[in-house]
Design goal:
Elements (H helix, E strand, L loop, with lengths): L2 H24 L8 H14 L1 H6 L6 E7 L5 E10 L17 E10 L2 E7 L3 E2 L4 E2 L6 H14 L1 H6 L6 E8 L5 E10 L17 E10 L2 E7 L3 E2 L4 E2 L8 H15 L13 E4 L8 E8 L2 E8 L6 E7 L4 E6 L5 E3 L2
Antiparallel strand pairs: 1-2, 2-3, 3-4, 4-5, 5-6, 7-8, 8-9, 9-10, 10-11, 11-12, 13-14, 14-15, 15-16, 16-17, 17-18
């Protein structure tokens, strides 16, 4: 074959490469995603999201809606769930209202990946950024009053003119939360809409704790018993309190250290709150008696771990932690 023919053949082959590439691309297998897959992906994402992973309640997750977006393989999945506290994201160290809080998360799934996740239209779960609505103290208190006045308990038989604010605490959280305590009186006993119920005809005084944040009421509990926000009895979860953690530490020390024979759970303790006045994210309590000083430090979070420092006038010292299962770990 002549040199000229070889050159022509080479040029022809090179000219075919773009066409072959386009052909291969057109015939490459296309990955298809289904609505069902999008729901699974969205649900898995929700479980690992900052808000839900902090204190979400597993069996409350429910599918509210699924919409097809005008993009290939893209769906908007709306899921509802409950958390054990108010607020969003990782709230470790923050002062939060311990009340069951309902949330709605809208998750955008495209080509098998989550590209957007917004909770309650205000919190971006991916960037963990909240778009707060500036609320002044006066606005927060008025919001709490207006909301409670229109809520089922007061609107059923609340006595006009009986509602007043007792106290308001401003939590140094992001966004700012206002804990508004309100007293009011009803003409009968009970909570919520009591239509058709047999009621005691007795003037009943109530105290409500209302949490306002970002221009909205986030929770409301009456008499520490009734969840006015969700219209049900307040759900109490078993939490190991610091007093019980103290007894666990005392029993542990008695079993493991001979020097603690004078340490007993029945000591009449003098109790002092050593928490700095403006600190809202943690608490420190000191128990002293019979030559012993026991200091407990713990964050104000859901089911905290407690840090202990035990000292005696004899020179004995001990440090350790107690978790919510009651397990003791020595740190020194």
């Amino acid at each position: 074959m002549s040199k000229t023919i070889n050159t022509i053949v080479a040029i022809a082959l090179v000219s075919l490469f773009p066409a072959l590439t386009i052909y291969a691309g057109l015939n490459a297998p296309t990955v298809e995603f289904s609505e069902g897959q999008a729901i699974i992906i969205a649900t898995d994402y929700l479980k690992g999201s900052p808000t839900f992973s902090f204190d979400g309640i597993e069996d409350t997750i429910e599918l509210a809606d699924v919409d097809t977006i005008r993009m290939p393989n893209t769906w908007s999945v709306t899921l509802k769930f409950d958390s054990r506290h108010a607020g969003y994201g990782n709230r470790a160290g923050e002062m939060v209202a311990q009340v069951i809080t309902e949330h709605t998360m809208v998750i955008m799934v495209s080509n098998g990946e989550v590209i957007s996740a917004i909770t309650d239209d205000v919190f971006d779960e991916i960037t963990e950024i909240l778009q707060p609505v500036d609320t002044s103290l006066e606005e927060a208190e008025q919001l709490a009053l207006d909301w409670l006045m229109a809520a089922p308990t007061f609107s059923f038989d609340g006595i006009e003119g009986s509602m007043s604010i007792i106290d308001t605490v401003i939590a140094e959280s992001y966004p700012v939360q206002y804990f508004v305590t309100i007293s009011f009186t009803c003409a009968q006993s009970g909570y919520g809409d009591r239509t058709g119920e047999v009621l005691a005809q007795v003037i009943t005084e109530h105290t409500a704790k209302v949490v306002v944040s970002s221009g909205e009421v986030r929770s409301a509990v009456i008499d520490d018993t009734w969840d006015e926000f969700n219209q049900r009895e307040k759900i109490s979860s078993e939490i190991l309190p610091p007093e019980e953690a103290l007894n666990i530490v005392i029993e542990y020390l008695q079993e493991n250290y001979d020097e603690t024979e004078t340490l007993d759970v029945d000591i009449e303790w003098s109790i002092a709150n050593l928490t700095p006045e403006n600190l809202v994210g943690a608490s420190t309590i000191e128990y002293s008696g019979n030559g012993w000083t026991i200091t407990i430090h713990y964050p104000v979070v859901w089911k905290p771990n407690y840090s202990f420092k035990v000292e005696h006038t004899s020179g004995f010292t001990w440090s350790g932690t107690v978790d919510q299962s009651g397990s003791v770990t020595e740190t020194e």
